[in-house]
Amino acid sequence: MSLPPGFLDELRTRLTLSEVVGRKVMWDQRKSNRAKGDYWAPCPFHQEKSASFHVDDRKGFYYCFGCQAKGDAIGFVRETENVGFMEAVEILAGEAGMQMPARDPRAKEKADRHTQLIEVMEAAVAFFRLQLSRGVAAEARAYLDERGLGPQARETFEIGFAPDGWQNLWDHLTGKGIAPDLIMGAGLAKASQRGSKPYDVFRNRIMFPIRDGRGRAIAFGGRAMDPEDKAKYLNSPETEIFDKGRNLYNLGPARAAAAKGRPLIVAEGYMDVIALSEGGFDAAVAPLGTAVTERQLQTLWQVADEPVVALDGDRAGVRAAYRVIDLALPLLTAGKSLRFALMPEGKDPDDLLRAEGPEAVGRVIEAAMPMVDLLWQRETEGKVFDSPERRAGLDKALAEAVSLIPDPGLKRHYEDAVRNLTWEMTRAQRRKGREAAGQGGGFGNRPWRSRGAQAPAQPSAETKASLLVTREDAELHLREAVILAALVTTPEVADTFEAALEAMPCADPVHARLRDAILTADPLTSEAVRARAEAAVGAEALESLLSARHLAVVPCLRRPGDAELARVTVTEELAKLTAALGRREAESEAVEDLDAHPDEVVTYRLRQASEEMARAQRAVQEDDIEYDVGDNGARIDRGERNAFAALMDTIRFDKTRR
């Protein structure tokens, strides 16, 4: 309908915005200036402690500097009461003492019928509540007592009982002069297929009235007392006043509790909501016999930014949570999401409350997981990602899910989160694989290990005491330093080497922290990576690494930002590092052979090799490495070359003797 000119202006004149909003908030007396019509309060649309919600009576508008909610008196009523425009105007007109303009005859007829249906529902509520106190409901009362729903809970939630029989409610309502078409229009009775009187929809059931956000009775939910009944729970059919996909059980009281800072909890059914409310979690709601719908999600987000979906701790509960993810992802916006609290195995919120009390439920609610974690669990649960194909499949599934998010900023954060989770999983699986192979912190099954090769033998005590191991460790340390320095100074190439970087041993804790800083930096810019690296190892340690003499000769470090040069350098150093690890295995085997065949000459040659390695070690420690240039232009550590040559001569000499 259209409103006459000037009606809304008159309405706004009679009511100040602060009067309308003041019923829902507590004004901050220190910040507010009543004389100027300037009011401040914690925002009723999102949970906060500071007063960032501003009302300007002179302009007639409100604005929240936290969540950016804004509007006038009509918009405020629409958002807080979950009603349409005309209903909001009607509410405000009633408060202002204004008569709503006359509607066209058909609109008035519809409004009258709507009101009549509500009145029929209220009459049914009264009837069912009366029946619960009679002898016919003794079994129902015993069941409620067993479930911990005493007289106080029954009174608060207006629980009733529908007696067994076909026309109990029908006869009662028609006896009060209520028209049959209104009884059936309210969903309380059905027409008989046999030509007899219509019969009651609810029979021999505990009755739970369902009210809309304004507290009007619009439907019922009934719990069967007969264990053989086909439907354990039965809801009213959809009617002119009831849309099960839009409404939520206990919405009005839950909204009031959430406005006071209580967590908004979405449970599975009536009994859970009542149990939670009785246990102190009074901002609890439930969908009405169906899975959560898009409209219900939007209603939930009008009440709280991050409702907690509390589900039973069984496979059905987990599957229900997974379905909510697909519904919610396309609707997510910045600041609006869901968290998921899964009850312990085999329990619902009611069970947990009765078994362990409100404290146990509070812990589960407080530990509710973000939706991105549940998405990760759904895509990885019970699966093993031990091959590139499987990991690619996981990447594809996660990318498809995240692509549903319409908000670009939020989508980017989800992409970052799943990337980090994937990285952590990959590292954990590789670590587990190395441990299973008895390889400790090395590269594990990297390409340098030949097919079918056994893990290298543990060195003898004499070998451990020699400089062989020390020299090998020094070489690894040097290679790692070059790689890390190159990626810090030219981080844009780091993506290319992510897998190899993850597997790099890094026995030095400083190197390990620096490696992790590069892998987790976002974005991969010089500023971001350097800031992350300084936070990980300290500015002094980072500068010491980058300015070391043995790194100063590396071309890509003299020309930071040259991506191609950095890429070539890192590729070469990784190849040398892989070769060094392969050589470590060969050396271990050689030492084992020497231990089995002691000989003075062999021992003498081994001592020569050790001395060469000792000299190379001192060169590393003194930043005094001498380099030769190979045929292909690559730099070759002269001490390393001589030491390795000496060792190979010793091995060849020993094999010739045998």
TrEMBL record:
<dbReference type="InterPro" id="IPR034151">
    <property type="entry name" value="TOPRIM_DnaG_bac"/>
</dbReference>
<dbReference type="Pfam" id="PF13155">
    <property type="entry name" value="Toprim_2"/>
</dbReference>
<keyword id="KW-0863">Zinc-finger</keyword>
<dbReference type="GO" id="GO:1990077">
    <property type="term" value="C:primosome complex"/>
</dbReference>
<dbReference type="GO" id="GO:0006269">
    <property type="term" value="P:DNA replication, synthesis of primer"/>
</dbReference>
<dbReference type="InterPro" id="IPR037068">
    <property type="entry name" value="DNA_primase_core_N_sf"/>
</dbReference>
<dbReference type="GO" id="GO:0008270">
    <property type="term" value="F:zinc ion binding"/>
</dbReference>
<dbReference type="InterPro" id="IPR030846">
    <property type="entry name" value="DnaG_bac"/>
</dbReference>
<keyword id="KW-0240">DNA-directed RNA polymerase</keyword>
<keyword id="KW-0639">Primosome</keyword>
<feature type="zinc finger region" description="CHC2-type">
    <location>
        <begin position="43"/>
        <end position="67"/>
    </location>
</feature>
<feature type="region of interest" description="Disordered">
    <location>
        <begin position="431"/>
        <end position="463"/>
    </location>
</feature>
<keyword id="KW-0460">Magnesium</keyword>
<dbReference type="GO" id="GO:0003677">
    <property type="term" value="F:DNA binding"/>
</dbReference>
<dbReference type="InterPro" id="IPR006171">
    <property type="entry name" value="TOPRIM_dom"/>
</dbReference>
<protein>
    <recommendedName>
        <fullName>DNA primase</fullName>
        <ecNumber>2.7.7.101</ecNumber>
    </recommendedName>
</protein>
<keyword id="KW-0808">Transferase</keyword>
<dbReference type="GO" id="GO:0003899">
    <property type="term" value="F:DNA-directed RNA polymerase activity"/>
</dbReference>
<keyword id="KW-0548">Nucleotidyltransferase</keyword>
<comment type="subunit">
    <text>Monomer. Interacts with DnaB.</text>
</comment>
<dbReference type="Pfam" id="PF01807">
    <property type="entry name" value="Zn_ribbon_DnaG"/>
</dbReference>
<dbReference type="InterPro" id="IPR036977">
    <property type="entry name" value="DNA_primase_Znf_CHC2"/>
</dbReference>
<dbReference type="InterPro" id="IPR006295">
    <property type="entry name" value="DNA_primase_DnaG"/>
</dbReference>
<dbReference type="InterPro" id="IPR050219">
    <property type="entry name" value="DnaG_primase"/>
</dbReference>
<dbReference type="GO" id="GO:0000428">
    <property type="term" value="C:DNA-directed RNA polymerase complex"/>
</dbReference>
<comment type="similarity">
    <text>Belongs to the DnaG primase family.</text>
</comment>
<keyword id="KW-0235">DNA replication</keyword>
<feature type="domain" description="Toprim">
    <location>
        <begin position="262"/>
        <end position="344"/>
    </location>
</feature>
<dbReference type="InterPro" id="IPR002694">
    <property type="entry name" value="Znf_CHC2"/>
</dbReference>
<keyword id="KW-0804">Transcription</keyword>
<keyword id="KW-0238">DNA-binding</keyword>
<dbReference type="InterPro" id="IPR013264">
    <property type="entry name" value="DNAG_N"/>
</dbReference>
<comment type="function">
    <text>RNA polymerase that catalyzes the synthesis of short RNA molecules used as primers for DNA polymerase during DNA replication.</text>
</comment>
<keyword id="KW-0862">Zinc</keyword>
<keyword id="KW-0479">Metal-binding</keyword>
<dbReference type="Pfam" id="PF08275">
    <property type="entry name" value="DNAG_N"/>
</dbReference>
<dbReference type="GO" id="GO:0005737">
    <property type="term" value="C:cytoplasm"/>
</dbReference>
